[in-house]
Amino acid sequence: MNSPLESATLFQIGPVAITQAIVTTWVIMVVLVVGAYLLTRKLSLHPSKRQVALELLVDSLDTQIRETTGAQPAPYRGFIGTLFMFILVANWSSLIPGVEPPTAKLETDAALALLVFFSVIWFGVRGSGVGGYLRSFAAPNPVMIPLNMLESVTRVFSMFVRLFGNVMSGVFVIGIVASLAGLLVPIPLMALDLLTGLVQAYIFAVLAMVFIAAAVEEGAHAPAAPDPETLSKKKDS
Amino acid sequence: MNFDFWGLGLQALNAVILIWLLSRVFWRPVSAAIARRQAAAQALLGDAKATQDKADAALAELTAARAGIAAERAKVLAEANDAALAIKADAQSEAHTQAEAIMASARSDMAREADTARAAMTAQAGELAVDIARKLLGALPDEAIQAAFLQKLTDAIGALPPQDRAALVGAKGIDLMCPADPNADTKTEITKAVQQALGDAVDLNFVTDPALIAGYELHCDHFVLHNSWRSDLAAVLKELRHAD
Fold first, then answer.
1. Which of B1, B25, B44 best tests the A interface by mutation, with the highest count of A CBs <10 A?
2. Which of residues 102-141 of A touch B (CB under 8 A)?
3. Which pLDDT score is estimated for A175?
4. How does strand B217-219 pair with strand B174-178?
5. What is the ipTM of this complex?
6. Of B90, B124, B139, which residue constitutes the final position of a domain?
7. Which residues of chain A lie closer than 8 angstroms to B29, CB-CB?
8. B226 and B155 fall within a common domain
9. Phi and psi of A18, rounded to 5°?
10. Cα angle: A25, vertex B29, A62; to 5 degrees
């Protein structure tokens, strides 16, 4: 059995080593995009059961975003929803024999966490401007600036480590049990892995949403820079 | 353990591409479909609201019209009731007037019939009294009655004014009415008494009239001296009639 921390390179494109996780990611991307295209081809005012199910999925996501952030879900729907669906499908891809989920690799989880990190910055700046976003690090007072900057990195790091640890451990345990006990014994663990995959996808998406919402909200309510005229009056008095 | 930064970048690129693709082929179409259906539902709700408002307005108009009809019905009923009461009052008044007229006519007829009946009864009573008197007098002795009437006749002649007595004496043919034909002695006695009362000799013509019942009367062309039961009963009967 190979180490779960090692990635097997399938082929090389220039300096880029194409691993199995990357190929699986491409397959998942194709499945998701083609499936989404096929599912959304004939949307009408008189919905079929398929359309109702799709609308229920989107409406549930919108409700979740609205309840988490209190904002309109449209700007965040694509990012958060795609994160959730990709992580969920990637986690559940471990059920296919011979397929190792991409989220069980450090690079994939780190890439997703990196996207969350930059999306927090992007939505924060878009919501309250560069100044407002930078001032959000000074909340509740400037003393907290180093800690807030450190937190913005560590919380994303914890996200990716959490996802990686859970998915990788599940795959690792199932591999060990399958190699020791036989074909049917890992089935309960695989069922548990289904639940773990769903929960981890949900946690990752919700945390990303919370981080983005916090950046937007703190930027909007961050203390404004003191007025120079007011400062001069204070000095005079 | 080694960390592949190229892999990191490629996976990040893959995620960005996936986010972009799914936004275009999944999230936007589905959310647009939801928005279209919500808009259609809102339009349907708006149409339903407009229809309901129109129905409410029609209902209110109908309710007002029905209230108007009820008020008009009540007004017509009140007018009909008033008209019926007026007709009833007129009919009652007319009936009362007619009844009063009928009652007055009946009273008048009854009074007239009562007067007629009373007059007839009075006449019958008078006739009955005369008949009774005649029968009673018929039972009395004629001599005494005739003597009393002869005395009464002489007294009446004596009580006449002188010019009447003179006119009586000067009359040609004086009828002396008797209830029965007197005998010769009686005629002589009567003639003698009358001549004494007149104070002169007169020629008496004795005429029998049973209707006198009793008594003697003198009749000439211009003078009548009543002195009989018939004249007395006639006077009584006249008095009775005048008494009514």
1. B25
2. 102, 105-108, 110-112, 114-115
3. 82
4. antiparallel
5. 0.87
6. B139
7. 40, 43
8. yes
9. -90, 110
10. 80
